[in-house]
Amino acid sequence: MSKITVVEVGPRDGWQNLKQMLTFEQKTDLIDRMIQAGVQEMEVTSFVSPKAIPQMADAAQLAAYVLEKYPDVKFYALAPNFRGVQNAYNAGIRHISYVVSVSETHNKANVRRTHEESLSELSQILETYPDAEVCIGMATALGCPFEGILPLEKVLAFTQRLYDIGCRSLYLADTIGIADPRQTRETVKACLEQFPDVEWQVHIHDTRNMGMTNTLAAIECGITKVQSTLGGLGGCPFAPGASGNTATEDLVYMLERMGYETGINFDKLLEASKYQKSFVDGIYSGHQMNIQTNNPPCS
Ligand code: COA
Ligand code: ZN
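Above: the input record for the complex with coenzyme A. Below: its predicted structure, written as tokens.
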């Protein structure tokens, strides 16, 4: 049966939206447990302004910890600008998630840049760091808090621009969890058909309980790499309207039941999620063990 890589993005997307500040030890403890459960790829932090996201202020320290302890795990870090990539690179990170929104309105709200500005900074990044994998987080590709569902042509045209710059690793994000399975299928199919040599991923929020169905729709169209967060935490503080992400434990349960191979042990992951719930406050249960913040919804 086919292998699906589940990229755990909770340490970035899940924790960035918490009101409560997690300690470094709480973070490393949770990361250790997720890796012990079998997680092989993780977005571990973001190199952003600590004023914008105070929770990520320990990015360099966290990168140093995980890179030394787990040389075989693939660690991504998110960066919104050249400076973030530079800091990530200097901290030893070689897999960067560079976030740019397909909707220019959201791009301005999130990273305070026009498309031109984000893309010219991206060219500079690719030129300066040819040995880094730069995966583009195409925020709002499946729905925007300001512009709604974007036309597919717009998503494809924006993908073409990224492709022409040289990007071969991209992910489609449903930033506020408003996509549906048919739309997801149509978008993913078109992207895979038109850009078959891109490594595609999806990043799907779960506002309407469609995180699992949309992720599955993407997988059934040929996507083999999907993002999710422990406990379903998540959200971007600069995108009003979303709740958490697809919960990793739910996703692993479904995929393993269906015969896909994730390499992740469900029971151990569920333990990690329960452990997270034991000290992460300001949360409520959505699904069984799907904990989410009470913060205003986001990316
Ligand atoms: N790492 C650390 N600090 C950064 C930074 C980075 N990558 N990029 C900018 N900064 C700091 C600047 O030093 C400055 O700090 P100061 O106010 O103490 O002088 C402040 O952020 C604003 O810098 P400026 O150059 O005016 O802004 P910018 O346009 O380059 O950057 C953002 C602004 C968008 C990068 C910044 O607001 C940010 O990191 N936002 C978080 C975005 C995010 O994480 N969204 C959710 C995930 S998708
Ligand atoms: Zn997100």
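Notes for the reader.
Residues 5-290 form a domain with the TIM Barrel fold (CATH 3.20.20.70).
Confidence is low (pLDDT under 50) at residues 284-299.
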